[in-house]
Each structure stands twice: as structure tokens, then as C-alpha cells.
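Priority: medium. Attachment 1 of 2:
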């Protein structure tokens, strides 16, 4: 059983979700983080191979979104790439995940087509809305940042977003400011998020 020393704002797993851990020898949060990071790195390498060679119809659909999560976490969790079925401390009702994710991806297609927002703002809004939906049992923050950066690079000309590196995954000032900015965006005020990440 994995210990429950989660950083602030982390999504706790249900007992059934914890049972989906493929590496049964994992006992601590540190061991789990290390295993997940290795899998995430492999998923990012696969994703980067698609940079500049994918159109919005391919990258902005539910199948791509689920495959990306599976690429990032599939060696760790049996449920990787599958929408969560349980309520969490964050996220919408699980029954609406598929519809809301499809709506978000369609919105981004329109943002691209009509140049609705500056690139960095569109990238950050996509990230926030994806986190707010919280499609999967775990890994949503890391997944949303990587997916948002991919969208930013491929459709909005954003080179990179400086999220704060590994310090964003542990309790501290950077994580606190990030979570506060996301909560402000939940209320419709994107200014703190834009200020935090817009150069």
C-alpha cells in the first residue's frame, strides 16, 4: 500500500484505483513518483516525435487525449488513459468528463482557427480547463501541463512554458502560487495564471 503523504492539492486515489498499480513492490510516495516520472519521460519522448507533424483534428480529439495519458502512465497504472469513475477533491462529475473534454478540444480548434486569444493565454486557458475537468484518476496536473505545452508549441507558436520544474510537484511557494492561480481561474479570473506564466 502506498503511503498517503500527498502534496497539497494532489488527488487522493480510491482503494480500487490504488489496486491498479502495476508495480506491487512500490510502498512510498517517493518510489511512486520516481516510477511515474520514468514513464512520463517515455511518454513525452513519444509525444515530441509528433511535434510539428500533427494537425488539430488529430491532436484535439478525445482519443488522442486518452492515448497521451496512457503513454505517460500506462507502465504504472492499469487504468491509465481511462476516464475516472469516482468523485475527487477536484474535477467535474465523472459522468460529464467525455462531453466536457470534447467541448474543450472543440473550443481550442476554434481558438486556433479564429485566433481568439494570444498564444500563451490560449495555452494556459487550455491547461486550466483540462485540470478543472480532471479526466483521470491521477496525474492530471502533469498530464495537463504536458498536453498544454504540446498544444502551445504546435498551434500557438509557444516555445516552452516554464511551469517551475520538479518544484511544482512538491509542497512549497511555487506550488502554492500555481494552485492559487488555478483556483482564481476556477472563479473566472485568469489574471494570476497569466501573470505567473506569461513572460
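Attachment 2 of 2:
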Amino acid at each position: 500500500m502506498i503511503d498517503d503523504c500527498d502534496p497539497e492539492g494532489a488527488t487522493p486515489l480510491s482503494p480500487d484505483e490504488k489496486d491498479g498499480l502495476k508495480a506491487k513492490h512500490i510502498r512510498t510516495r517517493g518510489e511512486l513518483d520516481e516510477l511515474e516520472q520514468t514513464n512520463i519521460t517515455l511518454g513525452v519522448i513519444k509525444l515530441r516525435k509528433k511535434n510539428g507533424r500533427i494537425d488539430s483534428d488529430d491532436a484535439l480529439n478525445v482519443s488522442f487525449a486518452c492515448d497521451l495519458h496512457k503513454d505517460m502512465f500506462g507502465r504504472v497504472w492499469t487504468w491509465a488513459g481511462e476516464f475516472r469513475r469516482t468523485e475527487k477533491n477536484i474535477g467535474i462529475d465523472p459522468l460529464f468528463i467525455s462531453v466536457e473534454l470534447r467541448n474543450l478540444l472543440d473550443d481550442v480548434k476554434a481558438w486556433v482557427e479564429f485566433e481568439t486569444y494570444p498564444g500563451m493565454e490560449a495555452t494556459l486557458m487550455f491547461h486550466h480547463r483540462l485540470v478543472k475537468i480532471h479526466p483521470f484518476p491521477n496525474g492530471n496536473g502533469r498530464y495537463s501541463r504536458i498536453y498544454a505545452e504540446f498544444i502551445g508549441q504546435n498551434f500557438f507558436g509557444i516555445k516552452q512554458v516554464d511551469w517551475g520544474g520538479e518544484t511544482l510537484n512538491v509542497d512549497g511557494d511555487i506550488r502554492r502560487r500555481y494552485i492559487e492561480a488555478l483556483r482564481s481561474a476556477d472563479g473566472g479570473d485568469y489574471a494570476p495564471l497569466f501573470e505567473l506564466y506569461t513572460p
